[in-house]
Task: structure prediction
Amino acid sequence: MIWDQIILGLGQALTVDNLLYCFIGVFLGTLLGVIPGIGTLIAVSLLFPFTFHLPPTTALIMLAGIYYGTSYGGSTASILLGLPGTPANAVIVADGHAMAKKGRAGPALFLTGIGSFVGGSTGIILMMLFAPMIASVGLSFTAPEYFSLMLFGLIAASSMSSGVPAKGLGMVAVGLLLGTVGLDTQTGAERLTFGFPQLFDGVSLVIVALGLFGIAEVMGSATSTDQGTVFQKKISMRSLIPSKEERRRSAMPMVRGSLVGSFFGTLPGTGGLLAAFMAYLTERRLSKNPEEFGHGAVEGVVAPETANNAADQTAFIPTMTLGIPGSASMALMLGVLIIHGITPGPRLVVEQPALFWGLIMSFWIGNIMLLILNIPLIGIWVKLLSVPYRMLYPAVLLFCCFGVYAATGQIFDVWLALGFGLFGYLMKMLEMPAAPLLLGLVLGPMMEDNFRRALLISRGDLAIFIDRPISATILALCVGMLVLTFVGHWRTRRKLQAEVG
Amino acid sequence: MSSPQADSQKGDRRDLCAGLLLCLMGTVAAIYISGHYSLGTIRRMGPGMFPLGVSIAIVLFGLLTAASSFKANSVAGWWRIDLLALATVTGGLAAFAILLPFFGAIPAIVGLSFVSGLAVKRSSVEVVLLAISLVLMAYLIFQLGLGIQFPLVRLP
Result:
């Protein structure tokens, strides 16, 4: 059974176009990931408008390539520069850069490459095994279940964001509100457009993502002169090979990292960063020489990167099989599909197996390309790292402008993006997390739709959400999660007060 | 004494402001929505019901956030704005938005490059180089590579 699906997927993934765009995706992803200050979210946001004119499968393949490519590249910056290329790579900065200083940069890079591949592969295998199962369960879902599930996803994602849980939840609600802007399909009313015809179709995901993540980021860091100390020693091919000891010590961390990463990737609200961090803690706990961690322990480099990539891959599972994105990047992937008229979810797996399995097969191809790419191209990445940020950020702004303008052709949208940039800057000052907002924006319309439908089915009876067992269970989980997060936060606050006070 | 972990768990004036901001946004939204859109009934929801519900949720979470800020210490200097970065980036983007429809892409890109570039001290050579490379990048990547058409120069 699964064999047929693999062949079907390969048929999709191995077309010239899809191979080409897969390559472009992983290449650009690694490139952007290597540059500190440009993380996964910004990379995906910057390049996502340019996938609009591509067919949906190709667009998704390219974006996915960018997505997992950035964490492959990000580790390079961590090791060579001592600065994380993407936030998730921050965990290996200490040990990775220490290894570089000891002259072991080559093996560090090599082992993270292999580890990333192992992690990614584990994630893909899990996806292949479990996605169809999850999708078939999801098929029995109707409007009330979908609503409850989306609610759960939003609550989980926003309460896991750093800081006060209420802030994250507030941001989700703001995203939901933004999602209502535009034409209300059920009643035909124009909502919150304030007379601007350009808002008729709603606030575009591109504009919000580029404004909140790209523009706001540059607004805060344009004058920054943080360059980090580039490790200039030339890295030859031969010096990449790790020693026997390093190889031996990396094996189990790769296995453990894959498992940790795969687990955390599927949970909404957690992703590469948490997975990498947990993997790091696990290795340190299990190590016979914990004091080496922070000073160049190879386990502390390999395990987090493996976990990071595994999490990146398994994050696709809830997104594709249930239509619940667990992070802002996944929300963007979801957004791409919706813009192309495809709604991810259990029906997608069953009705569009070519898209689904084509994507999975292209994950394999992408991961292999990354493994091959990263080894000879290390020299180029090193050169790239020496481009100072003050030359880079105007280019980032250029991409934001063109990304927005190219998507809609309306100059109004550039102004709107600027507005979101300013708002995003305010949000950063007040530590208001942006990812939940994006999630709310993407899921909002669907949630409202399902809510209305559920009430139509039940003829206005709100009890439908609790009458149906699956929906009731999920809602109970929502309540549980809320209680846990608030209590947990309150407890931590009390503990810290005791320490400080 | 205060690790980054501690800082994010400690509420402080930031949370107070964030909470108040949320309350403000939610209240304004709720008032506007209930004034302009019909709510309908639970069974037949009008356009205003879901947005109103969400607005109320925003106010609620804003209150919770603000409340949680009271029992906490503040973090120093959080309100400091890098005015130079903020102004130059905003100015650069505005320059792009204003120049593009009237004068075409090249002036717009040059404007973006120049104004946003003011955030950092540069030699005149670097200013020119930056502008040229951005124009080239835009042409090669967007016009040729992706096929997005835009007028390079427009005469008013």
